[in-house]
Amino acid sequence: MTNGSTSAEDADPIAVSIPPLDESARETAQNRQAELLKPPGSLGRLESMAVDIAAMQATPTPSVDPAVILTLAADHGVTAEGVSAYPKSVTATMVDAVAGGDAAINALAGATDITTHIVDMGVDGDVPASVIEQHIADGTANMAVEPAMTTTQAREAIAAGRALVEEHAAEAGVIGLGDLGIGNTTASAAITAALTETPVEEVTGHGTGIDETTRQQKIETIERALAVADPTTDDPLDVLRCVGGFEIAGLVGVTLAAASRRIPVVVDGVVTGAAAIVAAEINEGVNKYLLGSHMSTEPAHAIQLAALDVSPCLDYEMGLGEGTGAAVAIGTYRAACRAHSEMATFAEAGLDSA
Ligand SMILES: Cc1cc2ncn([C@H]3O[C@H](COP(=O)(O)O)[C@@H](O)[C@H]3O)c2cc1C
Ligand SMILES: O=C(O)c1cccnc1
Predict the structure, then answer these.
(1) What is the pLDDT of residues 183-204, one digit of tens each?
(2) Cα 180 to ligand 1 centre (Å)
(3) What's the Cα-to-Cα distance from 185 to each of 83, 115, 168, 272, rounded to whole Å?
(4) Region labeled Disordered — which residues (predicted)?
(5) Which of 60, 73, 108, 129 has the most CB within a 10 Å radius?
(6) Residue 271 pLDDT more than 60?
(7) Where would I find the H helices in the chain?
(8) Assigned domain for 47 exists
(9) What is the per-residue pLDDT for 257?
């Protein structure tokens, strides 16, 4: 069951119109950068970050505020194959912790003035009433045995993600993507292998800390899943249905809806990266609205970012998810936008620029 979707989304949740970047706003912002009270180029990539956001938001004075992170949670049937260092029940426990303000995402988003929302897309267990409910089912099926979800469920989850943006982040300056779901680095690696045509061995990491023997089991599980369901690799919705997750599908919907509203989307780690490559395959216009955050320790992440042509703005050897990398990066994007909008020009300071 899902809720909050409009009849238009029910008709075709993947059909969105994504506007082109505003090149005139980019040019105005670029010119302003050249006039600010600093040697041209001396704020390095902070300058291009602000200019890129100006083109996305169609304004010469870009701002990340109000910044919102949507952390979508769901369970994965593939945990039955022993692919994670933690039991499936930890997903519900972590949703509880996020709702109570006790998780890493709460601390990091609090430190960077970001509003967070936690969403149940398909948790197999009880969650507190304060969690936003977009529950599709009690976790996906085991992808190593059968497709993770039905096409109807994949579409419902995408529609739910779109509804989340409309209902909770329509006025956001930026939206950061976050995930929770034991087993979801397996789904993410499988999606990445299929859509980027990369050998499973190269995209499969240690997730929450599995040893090398278990990683080999994870590789074998993903290879079996891709052989069992045999998704059409040039059909992103089919790949999502066969080896995805409800939170990943929801994040696809969030990304499509944000891009259609000119809201920049800050990709977090490997799970949100998997959602981003699905969204970009559904509609290539998405690419222009993606902002990198960090470089995850999971090997699929670098492959995803290269496929998306997105650069991370930091590398702190993080590999957690929840939106934690996005939270830290949004602090940097905010700094970039504030320098751009708040600094005086040489003329305002009564100085010649050269
Ligand atoms: C306590 C805890 C907090 C987390 N926060 C995010 N994840 C991350 O790790 C999980 C995916 O890794 P795997 O595929 O190896 O299961 C997801 O829940 C993801 O959000 C966590 C994992 C744990 C254990
Ligand atoms: O990069 C991530 O998003 C990640 C890495 C390990 C576990 N969960 C998420």
Answers:
(1) 999 999 999 999 999 999 999 9
(2) 6
(3) 9, 25, 26, 10
(4) 1-30
(5) 73
(6) yes
(7) 7-11, 23-35, 45-57, 90-99, 104-111, 151-168, 184-196, 200-203, 212-229, 236-243, 246-260, 270-282, 299-308, 324-342
(8) no
(9) 98
Domain total of the chain: 1
Above 90 in pLDDT, residue 175? yes
Token pair for 337: 């936008």
Which of the residues 9, 247, 298, 322 is marked catalytic? Answer: 322
Please indicate whether residue 169, judged by its CB atom, sits closer than 6 Å to ligand 1: no
- State the distance from the centre of ligand 2 to the C-alpha of 45, rounded, in angstroms: 26
Once rounded to an integer, what is the mean pLDDT over residues 55-76? 98
Q: Is residue 267, in this structure, part of any structural domain at all? A: yes
Ligand nearest to the CA of 179: 1
Tell me what pLDDT residue 10 has: 54
pLDDT tens across 5-62, in order?
Answer: 444 445 699 999 999 999 999 999 999 999 999 999 999 999 999 999 999 999 999 9
The string of pLDDT tens digits covering residues 83-110 is 999 999 999 999 999 999 999 999 999 9
In angstroms, the Cα distances linking 271 to 130, 133, 221, 247, 345 are 24, 20, 18, 9, 41
Pocket test for ligand 1, best of 208, 215, 272 (most atoms within 8 A of CB): 208
Instruction: Give distance in angstroms: CA of 114 to centre of ligand 2.
Output: 20
Nearest ligand (C-alpha, residue 322): 1
- The 10s digit of each residue's pLDDT in 200-241 is 999 999 999 999 999 999 999 999 999 999 999 999 999 999
pTM above 0.95, yes or no: yes
Tell me if 10 is assigned to some domain.
no
Ligand 1 atom with minimal separation from the 185 CA = 14
The CATH code of the domain that includes 264 is 3.40.50.10210
Asked if residue 324 belongs to a domain, the reply is: yes
**How many angstroms separate the alpha carbon of residue 123 from the centre of ligand 1?**
13
Specify whether 348 is catalytic: no
The CA distance from 228 to 199, in Å, is: 16
Quick check: 318 and 327 in contact, CB under 8 A? no
